[in-house]
What does this fold into?
Amino acid sequence: MRIPVATVVNMIANGMTPDEVIAELPPLELEDVAAALRFAADTVSDREILLQPTA
It folds into this structure.
């Protein structure tokens, strides 16, 4: 079963812990979640995102 990196990253971005992601997607292991996050970080590492200050 293939699980898109975007699925894992979105789950983490929406507040799930890695353990919760693993519980929701049983084929995954903790190292798979870490690998997905590393891949996503590497993919966007050359992009610059300007953040707006909050009040």
Q: What stands out?
A: The radius of gyration is 13 Å. The chain has a mean pLDDT of 93. Helices lie at 5-13, 18-24, 30-44. DSSP finds three helices and no strands in the chain.
